[in-house]
Amino acid sequence: MNIAETAQRTGNSGRNSQFAEFPRIRKAGESDFDSIMAMCQVMFEENGIGPSMDEDLVASEVRAGLRGESSRIIVVIGDDRLEGSVFLIPGRSWYAQYWWLEDRWNFVLPEYRKSENSKELLKFTEWLADRLGIPLMMSILNNERTEAKVRLYQRRFGKPAGAFFLVGAKTGQH
């Protein structure tokens, strides 16, 4: 299963690697690296756990996503600049060879949160999982405005299938 290739094959409109159904979303490329890294720093400040972000580790993960390694894909939304992004990877449980699509992140920069970007990115993730013929597993790990985020996800996906509990730390407190 190659997520990036399937996404390109089933959705490419031929214009800037964009997806026909999602004109403001495109597969991220190497030219997006610096913008994605800056977004990751904002994301860590809001949601991160631990004293600091390991930039080398994040850079390695982002580069792997940009290259489509291990079927990873990063897509960005925005016309003139990155406004948000979702990073998707194949996932499976320890007990079966049953695959699903899961997120590393789904994030919209603060200045674009009044837009429809979050809804469009969520819709895209569902569309891609459907094209791949596998389930979608999306997560929220955040201590701020969690209820509002859960309501957004519920409007798109229905009832949640579990919860996260973080003991001994809070997201965004470094």
Description of the structure:
The protein has helices at 3-11, 33-47, 55-67, 117-132, 146-157; strands at residues 18-19, 22-27, 73-77, 84-92, 99-108, 136-137. The chain has a six-stranded mixed sheet with strand order 1-2-3-4-5-6. Strand 4 and strand 5 form a beta hairpin. It contains five helices and six strands, in the order αββααβββαβα. The chain has one domain (3-157): Aminopeptidase (3-Layer(aba) Sandwich), CATH 3.40.630. The protein is globular, with a radius of gyration of 16 Å. With 174 residues, it is of the alpha+beta class. It is 37% helix and 20% strand.
Q: How would you describe the shape?
A: globular
What level of helicity do the residues show?
25-40%
Termini distance? Answer: 37 Å
Give me the count of strands. 6
Radius of gyration: 16 Å
At the fold tier of CATH, the topology name is: Aminopeptidase
Largest sheet: 6 strands, mixed
Strand order of the largest sheet: 1-2-3-4-5-6
Average pLDDT works out at 91
What's the tally of helices? 5
Overall CATH architecture: 3-Layer(aba) Sandwich
CATH superfamily: Gcn5-related N-acetyltransferase (GNAT)
CATH class assignment: Alpha Beta
SSE string, helices as H and strands as E: HEEHHEEEHEH
Question: How would you sum up this structure in a few lines?
Answer:
This protein is α+β, with helices and mostly antiparallel strands. Helices cover 37% and strands 20% of the residues.
What keywords describe this structure?
globular; 6-stranded mixed β-sheet; 5 helices; Aminopeptidase; alpha+beta; 174 residues
Q: How is the secondary structure organized here?
A:
Elements: H1 3-11, E1 18-19, E2 22-27, H2 33-47, H3 55-67, E3 73-77, E4 84-92, E5 99-108, H4 117-132, E6 136-137, H5 146-157
Parallel strand pairs: 5-6
Antiparallel strand pairs: 1-2, 2-3, 3-4, 4-5
Helix pairs in contact: 2-3, 4-5
